[in-house]
Amino acid sequence: MDAVPLWAQILGLVLLLLLSGFFSISETAMMALSRYRVRHLASGGNRRATLVLKLLDQTERLLGVILLGNNLINSAASALAASFAIYYFGQSKYALAIASAAVSFAIIIFAEITPKVIGATYPERIALLVAPILRVLMVVMNPLVWITNLIVKFLLRLLRVPEKPSDMAMSTDELRSIVLESGHFIPQKHKSILLNLFALEDLSVEDVMTPRAQIEALNIAMPVEEILHQLATCYHNKLPVYEGEINRVVGILHVRKTIALLDQRDELTSEHFRHLLTPPYFIPEDTGVFTQLQYFQENHERLGIVVDEYGEVQGLVTLEDIIEEMIGEFTTSMPGAARAEGFAWDDNGECLVEGATTLRDINKHLGLALPVDGPKTLNGLLLEELRDIPEAAISLKVADCIIEIVQVQNQSIKVVKLIKGISA
């Protein structure tokens, strides 16, 4: 120690602490790194991101290098501090204890906690910076790491511990949690779309269809004048066409194609309209929404008739209905159709809703928790709860929401008043 000046010894101790901090910050950054983000950078041509992925594919060797380097340097720092204390203060046990405590405190503060906090805060930036150095160290320390890992593997097998997790795939719930906790990194609109996509897994076409009572359809058995009047005032470009009653769907009519028939208005018969029909596309009511989206694409269809197990028409679903479930409503509502647009509680905690409104729309727009595993509409829920066609002014409580029937017409509930309950 005589030949080494004091400043050099202190500088050596500082350098050892810095090296220990390097290994600590590298370990935390590499382990806290989002592999999905790094893969995105690598796919964009970032060479350092590609190198980081290669290092992470050798996690065993990477951790071996980091931990070996960190422990060797910490041991060297402790030995240097002990040698320094013995040289300057003799064999005093108090001097050794103070020196050991001081260097341990310095290691914890400057080489462990602080670097690891920084590494956890900026994992991507630091990992890309230290990757080339770690790659060189993995080559230089390969023999020592190989021996160490060999011993570790033997101990793992002895303890019957698997070397790698059997399943690293993320579940849908985990992905949903990532989206919810993304904060400002994902715009609110994009976050809403992603959450809607996850929710589609639990939906069938029955949940998103236009109910049978709200379908705008054409009865081809009507007189031609009535058919023309309906075509002139219809809201949609495609109409399901039935004969006599709605369960006898014979095709889909493109309203624009009927314009050419107006020149021969006096000679028109129902057969002229039949020749314009395209075959109807039927969908079982329990078909999943994701599955149906794929079927629409494969069959080049945009509209389907939803039927139950007996072949009776239950509703109608379009490609736009499914898209709206993902990105929100973007089309104009059909006049008279029950939609959730404009739903809001008033100052008294009340809201008027049409009975044909779906329970999912009510829950979504009013923050309620009405049960959706049975009937799909508010009218259906009330009929199930009451077991009878109710009279007006009847009230009941469902899922902490008071529901007051305002109007009943044609054996169905037309208008309902929702009143916030204590927990709503």
UniProtKB/TrEMBL annotation:
The lineage of its organism: Bacteria, Pseudomonadati, Pseudomonadota, Betaproteobacteria, Burkholderiales. This is HlyC/CorC family transporter. The chain crosses the membrane at residues 6-25, 62-88, 94-114, 126-147. GO terms for cellular component: plasma membrane. Keywords: CBS domain, Cell membrane, Membrane, Repeat, Transmembrane, Transmembrane helix. Its main location: membrane. Pfam families: CBS (PF00571), CNNM (PF01595), CorC_HlyC (PF03471). Belongs to the UPF0053 family. Residues 209-268, 276-333 form the CBS domain. Residues 2-202 form the CNNM transmembrane domain.
